[in-house]
Amino acid sequence: MARTRTPVVAGWFTEGAEEREFRLLGTRCTACSVVYFPREDAYCRNPGCAGGGELAEAALSERGHVWSYTDGRYRPPAPYVSDPDAEWEPYTLVAVELEEERMVVLGQAAPGVTVADLAVGMEVEVVPGILDEDAGTTWTTWHWRPVGGAR
Q1: What is the four-CA torsion angle of 24, 29, 35, 41, rounded to 10 degrees?
Q2: Which end of the chain is more exposed for a tag (fewer CB within 10 A), N or C?
Q3: CA 53 to chain centre
Q4: What are phi and psi of 117, to 5 degrees?
């Protein structure tokens, strides 16, 4: 049975793209150039935006620098949904300041990248990732990976 690839949040990243083409997607105000991620599709929230321009989809920087990081070593408590029968796998969270936008975006580190592999200021790149797989669906997302691969 073929699995359906489904993004965890539609419109936040390119879908089905090869790794070299994968990008996070935000929106940019055509009047003041403010960039939003997660995307803003209703109106520009910048109080200094005189024109209240339209919001256009914008591909965000492929690379950035580690702003902060931590590890998730325990199963989240209620009310978060977590299968108590499934084996818990620790993961690494990375806050990355994007190069061009100068905004911080949070995401999981690529599989195999631990806190021991990261340092504040280190250059990382966004790559496609898998959040979960169930009966017929592969839930896709983004991951952060040190430039040059996991160390």
Answers
A1: -50
A2: N
A3: 26
A4: -90, -5
